[in-house]
Automatic annotation (TrEMBL):
Taxonomy, superkingdom: Bacteria
Stated name of the protein: Cof-type HAD-IIB family hydrolase
A GO cellular component annotation in the UniProt record: cytosol
Pfam families found in the cross-reference section: Hydrolase_3 (PF08282)
Lineage of the species this protein comes from: Bacteria, Bacillati, Bacillota, Clostridia, Eubacteriales
Molecular functions per Gene Ontology: magnesium ion binding; phosphatase activity
Length: 286
């Protein structure tokens, strides 16, 4: 059951709001909710930090949130890279030797691996038939014949499953073969993501908390999928959107509206209302 957002206690204590993108902020057609940017600005005017935390590549998130790119904390690649005020905060990458291992693995199993670079993504020409599908999730996809043509540090590898069997592929292949040495997660029904072991959305949130002296009790997260679980654990106010799967809903402390009903905007508006009520109370008592 969706929460009455105005009845959630202590929202006036929130100092960091971290929002997932696909399935959480975006609706099912890939659209941002109405009023998002003005609500974000009102939140930041209260001194609250706003972080966009996504499995998408950094260049895609810059474009998607273009009007506010320099004001937001942007965390891409499931926590592999971060920017604030348009400046890099940190970045992780996979070695050339590791990339060769994965490239050969994809060819052996006929899987569609996408290498996520600094300013573009790389896809084997053998999978050119799905390039247009992949560009729904990320812009600037470059086709290459060999790994030697990839000349950018690679933060993350995403494996695309157009038949929406990522959970099965995760269990049958990637968890078994790579989970001991890498951070492997399900990025949605279409994707399995592989990053360096040190990378997760949860570690990214912890980094922000340490950087800005923000406590877990002052952190709010809005999420919908398995790759969000680690950051939900770092937040006192963990929200799953109503459209999230059952496992994510069970892990969340609160259930918000659906991503198709402007969940992120409505949750932020509830935080603003809590702040305003506190300000009114302080003003009355003076």
């Amino acid at each position: 059951m969706t929460e009455n957002l105005n009845n959630i206690p202590n929202l006036e204590k929130v100092k960091l709001i971290a929002i997932d993108v696909d399935g959480t902020t975006l609706d099912d057609y890939g659209n941002l909710p109405e009023g998002l940017f003005s609500t974000m600005q009102a939140i930041m005017d209260k001194g609250i930090k706003v972080a966009v935390v996504s499995g998408r590549p950094i260049f895609n998130l810059r474009e998607l949130f273009q009007p506010m790119t320099n004001d937001l904390i942007i965390i891409s690649d499931n926590g592999g890279k971060a920017e604030f005020h348009g400046e890099p905060v940190y970045s992780e990458s996979l070695s050339k030797k590791e990339l060769e291992t994965f490239w050969n693995y994809f060819e052996e199993h006929d899987h569609m691996g996408v290498l996520i670079g600094e300013n573009e993504a790389y896809l084997s020409n053998n999978n050119s038939n799905v390039k247009e599908d992949i560009e729904f999730f990320m812009t600037d996809v470059t086709l290459v014949d060999t790994l030697a043509e990839v000349d950018s540090p690679i933060t993350k590898i995403s494996i695309y499953f157009p038949d929406k069997t990522s959970l099965q592929a995760y269990n049958d292949f990637y968890k078994k073969d790579f989970d001991k040495d890498y951070s492997v997660t399900i990025g949605g029904i279409d994707w399995v993501d592989i990053m360096p072991m040190s990378v997760s959305k949860g570690r990214a949130i912890k980094h922000l908390q340490d950087e800005f002296n923000i406590d877990k009790s002052e952190t709010l997260v809005v999420a919908d999928n398995y790759n969000d679980l680690s950051m939900m654990e770092e937040a006192e106010f963990s929200f799953a959107v109503a459209s999230a799967n059952d496992d994510i809903r069970a892990a969340a402390k609160y259930i918000g509206p659906s991503n198709n009903d402007g969940a992120v905007v409505k949750i932020m508006q509830a935080v603003l209302k809590a702040y305003e009520l506190q300000e009114d109370s302080l003003s009355t008592n003076q």
